[in-house]
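Slide 14.
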Amino acid sequence: MGPEPVSESELAEARDLLCELVSIPSASGAEGRITERLEDWAHEHAVPNRRVPAENGRESLVLGDSREPVLAIAAHVDTVSATWPEATVPRVVGNTVHGLGAVDDKGGVLACLLAARALARRGVNFTQIPAVFAFPVDEETSGSGSRALAIDLSPRFAIALEGSSLRPGTAECGDLEAMVHVHGVAAHGSLVELGDNAAHAAAKLIAGLESLGLGGEEHPLLGASVASVTEVSTGDGMNVVPDSCSLRLRIRLIPGQDLQETIHLIESYAAGFNATVEMVEGTVPFELPGNSPLLDALDGATLAVLGEKRGPIGVPAWTDAHNFVDFGGSEAIVFGPGSIETAHTPEEHIDVTEIVQCSRIFTRLLEPESIGSLRAADPRPDPARYRKELP
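Slide 15: predicted structure.
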């Protein structure tokens, strides 16, 4: 069984719509125009919608009527800020659209729109579907949009769209980011023996990071936990032995690692170099439970559209799925058209064929039998940690 054929008219429409979305600048903090366009689109196609405000005053959009959905499918509308000329001027080569946001995440946004429209054209009553499409703001910065959506919707299951080549991302890394401040003793640069050079101590600290043993922590989809230094700053000027040196340390966390234990490990290690640790951010890794009906339902829909199930992958970066897990208590998968390999670069692009295929997968996922299997799932083992009271 091969993939369902995609017609030229479908591809042409997808190219045109994606070019329109790419041409609307929507860097984090400036998503208003694209949210308004999606809202207008929903009205044009008689799809119920509402806005959900985040704590910073920006608003995400929800398509669908369910206030307590069993499934939320979310594609963020913001992009990184453009750092190259004509970033938001789309360029089409065959079925491939180039431009900022094409794959991250406007291709995913379009897949959701096409799926919602397909349901509307079938005469589906959105009040009877226990699922919604959501378009969070602020994914590229602080994640406030999906955080508010997770609290508002508290879905039992969630799909966060990112370019995964239509493979389910069932495990996502966590991240520990900290500033490590190494302390020394200042002295005149010609009398180095009178000082204690913090930069030299910092170099030894960096060289010894492998001794932490993080590489012994390994995940079949995400690989090993690893520590890396991404920024170093030291010194107050010429001819002075520096009495301080600061490092930005990042540690990739994988399922099974405990965030607090890792923080204590770093603090103990840093103390051996007369250094202190200042936490910047810590996120806990997550993994879809092995018996989750969400993966079975998504695999079934993918098989029907592509003629094959595609094996799971690990997700090496933070996505909105994290907030649905942490704040909504959801079981979550990362899934979407295209690949993030070119995201955030002048080479960003996506083949619209995958966008059409992704929309069909979602349409099948929301068919009565498939969505019914999710509805019949056992209650979540733990209640949502944060839940907005329904009116």
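Speaker note: The chain has a mean pLDDT of 94.
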